[in-house]
Amino acid sequence: MKQSLQLKLGQQLTMTPQLQQAIRLLQLSTLDLQQEIHEFLESNPLLEIDDDDQAPIEVPAGIESKTETATTADLNNSEEARVESEWTDNIPEELSIDSNWDDTYQSSASISEQSSYEGESDFESFNSPLESIQDHLLWQLNLTHMSDRDIEVAYAIIECVQPDGYLSITPEEIWESLTTDLEELDLEEVIAVQHRLQRFDPVGVCSIDLRDCLLVQLEAFQDHPLYKSTHNLVDLYLPLLGSRDFSQLSRKTKLKDDELKKVIDLIQQLNPRPGSVIDADDTDYVIPDVSVKKRNGTWQVELNNDALPPIKINETYSAMASTAAASEDVTYIKTSLQEAKWFIKSLQSRNETLLKVASCIVSRQIDFFELGEEAMKPMVLHDVAEAVGMHESTISRVTTQKYMHTPRGIFELKYFFSSHVNTASGGECSSTAIRAMIKKLVTDEPAKKPLSDNKLATILASQGIQVARRTVAKYREAMNIPPSNERKRLI
């Protein structure tokens, strides 16, 4: 095969490392970006925390936007210096032989503890171990007087407790698993220990089913005038209550409507999932990236700069780029300086893009901020991308895991995007507004005769919104609203 040279002309898109970094920072959430900044501060000596106020970012005219930064580093440093000077001035030159060092000298741990309690402190930020339902029950078991035999049975029962508080297996199965270890163990002993564990906190834990759980919790209402009627309903007619067959309940329990309503109210005070009180899940935090406020009749979009530590280039190290003697040091400093500049530029680009997209969203959804969810307009990624002059993929990255603090609550930026449904007048209505209308109709529906999905679709059609019954059912299920037969109420 003969080798030859050929000349070709073509176009190719190449992503530089700087562009890849900017795209990666753009799609990070606030918490992830905080971690990224701290890691970059540790790896790059040319970056440091900026104690000075940041200059506000300029955005295009339209929706009024501004940024504000509250720096507390100087206040914290001055407070620590004041506390340190107080205890250093009080240390005497000579101490007596029988004196205690802790009485005179205040350790650094005490200083930090004192300073943290004097200011604002987030107690949930401490890395304390999470407590499960088993840990909570074992702690109470260690404080309860039981025989060694009963304690071993109690350990076996607690191991079978699920996160919702119910047992995963029956007491008979627990008894069969213990007969090999405990001689002459009776099933009544296992049931007796189970009944004792059911009175632990939270009451009703270690139950077999819902009926057993509610009956145990009802023991706290034995002085209630309707205790016997409530106990009878839970013990015998709980399935009828679940199906909301109030006419059958009233006939079988021989209770009038007002008495049956009070009995149901008493049952609703009980906890059907006692294990949910002990939540072992880690707390999820949401830090708003932008906030929206109305001032002087104008909606203003502000960037939350307090969520991110302000950073700058260290002037001392950057000046060494031209004064360092060794060439390797000069190369390292210049490389780190270039990386630091690109990192700061990427952060500024992220903030500008986020503020620009948020301002465009607010300008298109002003009716939502003024009137509520029912006034939400349909909007897709293409609409915002065309308005700000960016690609749809960029808008998708900006709106993912980014949150906006509004007078109506905290919403993810993706919340403001929704598909549209054509109206009878030729206009468009967003799916979010339709969900709000369905929710309002369900809230105002008759208690004894809830609206079916077909009836909801008919009411919406009378308002000019043409939606199918299955679409109404899909929206209703998305809002965790039960069907009409499960929404029936006595009064």
UniProtKB/TrEMBL annotation:
Pfam families xref list: Sigma54_AID, Sigma54_CBD, Sigma54_DBD
Where are the compositionally biased (Low complexity) regions? 105-118
Recorded GO MF terms: DNA-directed RNA polymerase activity
Q: Which InterPro entries match?
A: RNA_pol_sigma_54, RNA_pol_sigma_54_core-bd, RNA_pol_sigma_54_DNA-bd, RpoN_core-bd_sf
- Provide the RNA polymerase sigma factor 54 DNA-binding domain boundaries: 331-489
Composition bias (Polar residues) maps to 68-78
Q: Keyword Thylakoid: yes or no?
A: no
Enumerate the UniProt keywords alphabetically: DNA-binding, DNA-directed RNA polymerase, Nucleotidyltransferase, Sigma factor, Transcription, Transcription regulation, Transferase
Which part of the chain is the RNA polymerase sigma factor 54 core-binding domain? Answer: 123-317
Tell me the leader sequence span: none
* Stretches the record annotates as Disordered: 62-124
The entry assigns this protein to a family as follows:
Belongs to the sigma-54 factor family.
Any idea what job this protein has? Answer: Sigma factors are initiation factors that promote the attachment of RNA polymerase to specific initiation sites and are then released.
- Protein known as: RNA polymerase sigma-54 factor
Q: Which organism is it from?
A: Marinomonas sargassi
